[in-house]
Amino acid sequence: MIPIGLLGGSFNPIHIGHLVLAEEARGRLGLERVIFVPARVSPHKQGQPHAPAEDRLRMVQLALADNPAFEASDIELRREGPSYSFDTVRQLLQASGGAWDISFIVGADTLGELATWHRIRELADLCRFVVFRRPGDSPTALDGLRGALSDEQVAAIAGRCFDMPLVGVSSTEIRRRVREGRSIKYLVPEAVRRYIAAKGLYKQ
Length: 204
Known about the structure:
The protein is of the alpha/beta class. The protein has helices at 16-29, 53-64, 85-95, 111-114, 120-126, 151-158, 171-179, 190-199, and strands at residues 2-9, 33-38, 70-72, 100-107, 128-133, 161-163.
């Protein structure tokens, strides 16, 4: 089996925190590669202002260009409707002919909503969730998964929780800084910063 990492999200825009998370996961888990999957419509972020899908994908591609272990996938952008991770993982496993062992990389802040994910129990059987915690993340966040997942699935996730370096940056903060005319240099890869400026993204 080929160990593959999967990192999904709006990437609106991608920033250095995403890259640090992916590299930490790659090193800790011995992943052959990490696939970044921008969502067309995130079920948990509907109503939030998004840059166009093609721009978000292009920014991911630019951010990953110098790391051969990272790649961008447009699998969710090619599907209509909400971007359900269950559909994505199932499609990727089918395309790999069952050769991939997928680690689904999430931050501890995602655990609070994981129980509401589409077909979450089946998804947890298709892949292994790997959680990365930042200093200050709640140690009881896993409690909210009980009932949505089996005790065995919750225990498996609990055994795959890791600490990661603290990177105090978020896509929301980056969008706010652009809107206010403030610098985002070093918060995103330089190629992404130039793309945002050239396209005039996040000005409003």
